[in-house]
Amino acid sequence: MSAHAGHHHDLESLAERVAGWARRGEDVEVYAVRAEETDVRAYDGEVESLTAATSAGIGVRVVSDHRQGFAWAGSLEEAVLADTLGAARDNAAIAAPDEHVALAVPDGVPTAAVDLWDPELASVPTADKVALALGLEARARGAHPAVRQVSSADYGDVAVETALVSTTGVRATGRRTSGYASVSVIAGEGDGSQTGTGFSVGRGFAGLDPEAAAGEAVERAVRMLGATKGTSGRTTVVFDRRVTSTLLGALSAALSGEAVVKGRSFFADRLGEQVADGVVSLVDDPTDARAYGAAAHDGEGLACRRNVLVDAGVLRSFLYDTVAASRAGTRPNGAAVRGGYAGLPGPGCRALVLAGGAGELDEAGVLAAVGEGLFVQSITGVHSGVSPVSGDVSVGAEGLRVRDGHLAEPVREVTVASTFQRMLRSIVAIGSDLAFLPGVAAGQTLAIADMQVSGT
Amino acid sequence: MIEAPVLERVLAEALRHGGQFAEVFAEDRSTSSVVLDDGRVEDLTSGRERGAGIRVVVGETTGFAHTADLSEAGLVAAASAAAEVARRSGPDTRGAPVTLRGTGVPDAAEGPLVPKAAAVELLRRADDAARSSGSAVTQVQVGFGSSRRRVLVANSEGVLVGDEQVRTRLSVSCVAVGDTGLQTGFETAARTSGAELFDEVEPEELARLAARRALVKLSARPAPTGEVPVVLAGGSGGILFHEACGHGLEADHIVKDASVYTGRVGELVASPLVTLVDDGTVGTEWGTSTIDDEGHPARRNVLIEDGVLVDYLWDHLRARRGRRTSSGNGRRQSYQHLPMVRMTNTFLLPGTDDADEIVAQTRSGVFVAKLGGGQVNTATGDFVFGTTEAYLIEDGHLTAPLRDANLIGNGPEVLRRIDAVGTDFGMTPGTCGKDGQSVPVGCGQATLRITGVTVGGTAG
Fold it and tell me: How do residues A172-222 score in pLDDT, each as one tens digit?
């Protein structure tokens, strides 16, 4: 790892050099990435696999006469750089002119100081990482007599360095480290088997808590033992904070300014309207270093910033990159995201937080406030059952019945369904147990009234 | 891509600290895509990725490293990194030298890929057809993608094989607006072939299907709730079997006792009407290839025959430990990933019932014309799959269209409840995700009926 730490200056000069090959009348943006990762998977007291890898790549956008072409390559070799620029140029030549197509231009918003780099990670010996994975597996296996299998126990870390340089004056470098421990367990026998997962994430190796991850996985599997298929009916549903984070992540697609301007969001034409209960706010703030998706620069190299999307239940703004902002007749707000060097930038959330309500409510507090309902600890089928276009929500769910304000018997093989439009106006309680979980949104315990549960 | 003597030296380096197996997987992939959105050509992209993944198996442990540097020095460095696990695990016993035999990689053929300018024209045709399907169609996005992937596999058992895989796809996504808000329709065609895709597929036809799907749902009512009979149309997705049992039959889940199908070979696990096959050799289907990503020839594997579980799906590593041969199901997303057990084209063989009769003999229930994605927990068998076009069945007739919803069931239970299988048949392409890796797969089925499965609608 140490071999590459601190090499982002090299990346920057590489990106600058390629951007310098721009021809007259042509704008070029170069995004260069280098990453190093280690992954360890433990199984049954042994290392199942150990991966050590470096990767690097480049993504090049060319805009000439309002025509855009893009090309990427999984290499930073000299000959590849020139080929990639050439391929992007060829693509631009085929594109039809579009007045809104342009590269980002610096907008003067200062970059927040967001430190995402753990300098210690580079010096952690592989043996320690292996020991963490083995220890995680052993802990999960030994935590409860009902645990019969640890189907996966993983440690992983990655150090990523990026540089973005454009002929329109953008220059941004960044680096981040992250580490995780995650574990999946199976409790019970045969048809009565139940599963649970737990994880711990951080900026590196040192902050990880494998004990908590193992405990969480085991608790989630064991409390589901004896689960039966639930019954159908309308009820209040309490979402575990992980589930809330997943659902907000799906909802965030409807807040993309591109989706809105292209008529692919149920929020289109609703700016200024009451879309949620009066206490509710939705804020995307990647400059909060606690957020998993925290970042100083967006995918076009502009400063990330705090964007208030919903305030006091009123829809206030959307997320924009340069092109979507131009189409919508507004300015980009530093919200471009890109999926590595092989992806084009587009608007999206990084650190969406739902807030609202008063007082301190932990999970137990939310359950007490709800009294009767269904607590959902995990959901499936988000990809097939949640639409940011129509707003329809229908997901598979498992969890525990809520009786007299406490968790009661386990329930499996049900669906819960509603629409985002309706859910945002049916919020019963928002927990104060906010956690910055992996993904584009944080999560807390969240209670929503009047959801349809479907079972027997 | 890489000469045999170089590969032999790299494999020797990989085994320098011992180990039972070493492998070099090299890949050179170029991709091309165009998106037409709102009538504008957007996202013209070209991509190129080239590199090698090297693994060393020592006892129960796999060491893995990958590199984008295909020079001998780059490969040796990666082999050396992968070999580190062997050094950790005990006494240093250098592996025997490797002699490769085999055909190597076919020379890059200038295959008939669709040129970008021609692709743009295809997209425009689809866009026009979708928009003229109805004034309520307000948004159309059409995507074209093609890829050429050359792979080479060399391992310490002497195997040296290569393959070239060309894939092409076209997809159409529409939004229609009406009193009930926004509704979406999607359709895709994809083949393991080049320009030949368009000998079989009319872009206009694909676009009209997607547009109709969105338009129909403008008058959709909420899907029902509770357990109801469900009829799945032939070729509606086949994702049912992919989720209900396909993943649960992958040997990596089996050997970890993490599947409801563990230890059940020879048992009746489904209705006797169910014969399920995974076959990586079917024509130009999306999951087809000549070899898998471990160099084993793709083949046809019967998984369930007349309801009885016959066999699981195997990759090299699990087969080796099970003292049997691989079923040709070791696949990986790219050279940067370890292979694992994956499906190819998974389908239910047609039965003897008339498709229309199956509907006519269903008093009430849900008819699914098109499925979306799905997800399964192999350890519990619980799975979901989504609908993207569905109708109520009332007195044996299709009536009101339904809003999209997920269905949920338990694999072995739902498979037992299949009481009719039609004579019709259709395959659809899909992308299967597992453990962070995506691979192209095909799914197929005839029209079939499940006597009861839970529909996750909002109609109370």
Answer: 999 999 999 999 999 998 889 999 999 999 999 999 999 999 999 999 999
What local confidence, expressed as pLDDT, does residue B136 receive? 97
Check CB contact under 8 Å for B40 and A88.
Answer: no
Domains of chain A: 8-222 (3.30.2290.10), 228-454 (no CATH)
Cβ-Cβ contacts under 8 Å, B377 against chain A = 195, 380
Q: Say how many C-beta atoms besides its own lie within 10 A of residue B6's C-beta.
A: 16
HEC letters along chain A:
CCCCCCCHHHHHHHHHHHHCCCCCCEEEEEEEEEEEEEEEEEECCEEEEEEEEEEEEEEEEEEECCEEEEEEECCCCHHHHHHHHHHHHHHHHHCCCCCCCCCCCCCCCCCCCCCCCCCCHHHCCHHHHHHHHHHHHHHHHHCCCCEEEEEEEEEEEEEEEEEEEECCCCEEEEEEEEEEEEEEEEECCHHHCEEEEEEEEECCCCCCCHHHHHHHHHHHHHCCCCCEECCCEEEEEEECHHHHHHHHHHHHHHHEHHHHHCCCCCCCCCCCCECCCCCCEEEECCCCCCCCCCCCECCCCCECCCEEEEECCEECCCECCHHHHHHHCCCCCCCEECCCCCCCCEECCCCEEEECCCCCCCHHHHHHHHCCEEEEEEEECHHHHECCCCCEEEEEEEEEEEECCEEEEEEEEEEEEEEHHHHHCCEEEECCCCECCCCCECECCEEEEEEEEECC
**pLDDT of A5:** 40
Chain A residue nearest residue B81, CA to CA: A52
Nearest CA in chain B to A412: B382
Q: CB-based contact (8 Å) between A82 and chain B? A: no
**A53 in contact with B at a CB cutoff of 8 Å?**
yes
Q: Is the predicted pLDDT of residue B460 greater than 80, yes or no? A: no
> What average pLDDT does this structure show over B335-358?
97
Partner A contacted by B321 (CB < 8 A): no
Is the pLDDT score of B162 beyond 90?
Answer: yes
Residues B376-408: pLDDT tens digits? 999 999 999 999 999 999 999 999 999 999 999
| pLDDT value of position B427 | 95
Question: What is the distance between the alpha carbons of residues A401 and A408, in angstroms, rounded to a whole number?
Answer: 5
User: Residues B245-282: pLDDT tens digits?
Assistant: 999 999 999 999 999 999 999 999 999 999 999 999 99
Tell the residue number behind the tokens 């409510």, with chain if given. Answer: A361
Q: First CA to last CA across chain A, in angstroms?
A: 54
Residue B96 phi, psi (nearest 5): -70, 150
Which residue does chain B place closest to A190, by CA atoms? B260
Name the segment(s) of chain B with CATH classification 3.30.2290.10. Answer: 4-219
**Mean pLDDT of all residues belonging to chain B:** 94
Any idea what the Cα angle at residue B295 is, between residues B289 and B296, rounded to 5°?
Answer: 75
In sequence order, the β-bridge partners of residue A353 are A283
CATH architecture of B4-219: 2-Layer Sandwich (3.30)
User: Which residues lie closer than 8 Å to A406 by C-beta, 6 or more apart?
Assistant: A367, A368
Cα–Cα distance measured from residue B255 to residue B262, given in angstroms and rounded to the nearest whole number: 8
Interface test with A, best of B37, B42, B45, B432 (most A CBs within 10 A): B45
Q: Which residues of B68-102 are buried (b: 16+ CB within 10 A; e: fewer)?
A: bbbebeebbbbbbbbbbbbebbeeeeebeebebeb
Cα distance from N-terminal residue to C-terminal residue, chain B: 61
pLDDT band for B91, please (50, 70, 90 cuts). Answer: low
Mean pLDDT of A295-299: 98
Query: Are B121 and B129 contacting, i.e. CB atoms less than 8 angstroms apart?
Result: no
In this complex, which of A49, A71, A77 lies closest to B64 when CB atoms are compared? A49
